[in-house]
Amino acid sequence: xxxxxxxxxxxxxxxxxxxxxxxxxxxxxxxxxxxxxxxxxxxxxxxxxxxxxxxxxxxxxxxxxxxxxxxxxxxxxxxxxxxxxxxxxxxxxxxxxxxxxxxxxxxxxxxxxxxxxxxxxxxxxxxxxxxxxxxxxxxxxxxxxxxxxxxxxxxxxxxxxxxxxxxxxxxxxxxxxxxxxxxxxxxxxxxxxxxxxxxxxxxxxxxxxxxxxxxxxxxxxxxxxxxxxxxxxxxxxxxxxxxxxxxxx
Length: 249
Ligand SMILES: [Mg+2]
Prior knowledge:
Elements: E1 26-29, E2 36-37, H1 39-53, H2 60-78, H3 82-97, H4 103-112, H5 114-117, E3 122-123, H6 127-137, E4 139-145, H7 148-158, E5 166-170, H8 175-184, E6 192-196, H9 199-208, E7 212-215, E8 236-238
Parallel strand pairs: 1-4, 1-6, 4-5, 6-7, 7-8
Antiparallel strand pairs: 2-3
Helix pairs in contact: 2-3, 8-9
This protein binds magnesium ion.
């Protein structure tokens, strides 16, 4: 039996299953902020951007609120990724200065965001070794949302692609995304686990599609990915670190 209800006898959110699950599960991994740090890079750029703006009247919190609103609107209109992020930084500047950004300002913003533009990837601790071990026991897949080309480049430079039976890059992760994935690849939801840092994109829609989930919070998770995870849901395993997967799978 691999039903999640047999794996935890308590509704205590800190409770963990007593025994590892049997081999032959399908483990689907989120990428950004699960396999590698991503939002932290964006946060560093935003800090530098706020220093660079030096607004005469608005403080950092007020400017950050404006930028968050612009980012939320642009995510809906244009999706995710560094191109959309740069666009948001430019629009925030234009909003604050009440005029178009100059070519020089655009170049300076690009310079602030060089780590993002070059798609640098910093793996979280133990990720490569953990995937290597898990891959001998289970089928691994990767499911990431964002700009197709940008996500693919990060996967390429991560050197992790060989661990996965399938790599799926989608525009958004909604319930129907998970339902479609299980249907297309004949996955059995009860033996399938979505592993990620985002309640909104990874945990809650996967649960609604009938899968199990592993929630590994990342302290740098983007504000737009925040949501509640039902603490009474025994189908969600909550772990502190990626390497803790080895104790359960
Ligand atoms: Mg993520």
